[in-house]
Design a protein that fits this description.
mainly beta, 9-stranded mixed beta sheet, 200 residues, 7-stranded parallel beta sheet, UDP N-Acetylglucosamine Acyltransferase, domain 1, single chain
Length: 200
């Protein structure tokens, strides 16, 4: 069990002693948090989830069961990673070099996925590094993200494409004249040059 105040780390989880885990964070059965990873306060690391070496995870984040977050990913506060979603880190994956020799850690350069505040990655979605997912964006289940995603974008498909906008509540926004409105919060936005901006 963890000695960090109010944390809960399952006896069957593997948390490296060099990792930093914030207060009130829960790490569940068979999850692995590697060396020098940083996990913020009030996070939930689900069963069988993987957090790679040096990964940075903000406060109030949720990694659902079997989510794979490979280094050097960076997640801002309030990010949701759905079950079995994958954040990759190798642009040109190969097990061997051209001469057939096994690749080592010195034979490739890790690249990361950056996810901004409040964004959500759906179940079994894949984010192909290097990409940046904008704040409050929503990547649908099973989507494959191959390029940067603007804030508030609703992304679906393979490869992922934007089909709409979502508000901070995660609900699709509805058009109201020249603006977009969230039926849950009443927040209003305007679309400008392919980006969504709050009004007022």
């Amino acid at each position: 069990m963890s000695s960090i105040p109010d944390t809960s780390i399952a006896a069957t989880a593997d948390v490296d002693p060099r990792a930093l885990v914030g207060e009130r964070t829960r790490v569940w059965h068979l999850a692995q948090v590697r060396e020098f990873a940083q996990v913020g306060v009030d996070c939930n690391i689900g069963r069988g989830a993987y957090v790679g070496p040096g990964v940075q995870i903000g406060d109030n984040c949720k990694l659902q069961n079997h989510a794979l977050v490979y280094e050097p990913a960076r997640l801002a506060d309030g990010v949701f990673i759905g079950p079995a979603a994958v954040l990759t880190n190798d642009e040109f994956p190969r097990a061997v070099n051209p001469d057939g020799s096994l690749k080592s850690g010195d034979d490739w350069q890790a690249v990361g996925v950056i996810i901004e505040q409040g964004a959500s990655i759906g179940a079994r979605a894949v984010c192909i590094a290097p990409v940046r997912i904008g704040a409050w964006a929503l990547v649908a289940a099973g989507a494959v993200v191959t390029k940067d995603v603007p804030a508030h974008a609703l992304m679906v498909g393979v490869p992922a494409r934007r089909i709409g906008w979502v508000g901070r509540a995660g609900r699709p926004l509805e058009r109201d004249g020249d603006e977009w409105v969230c039926g849950t919060t009443g927040e209003r936005y305007r679309e400008e040059n392919g980006a969504l901006l709050p009004t007022g």
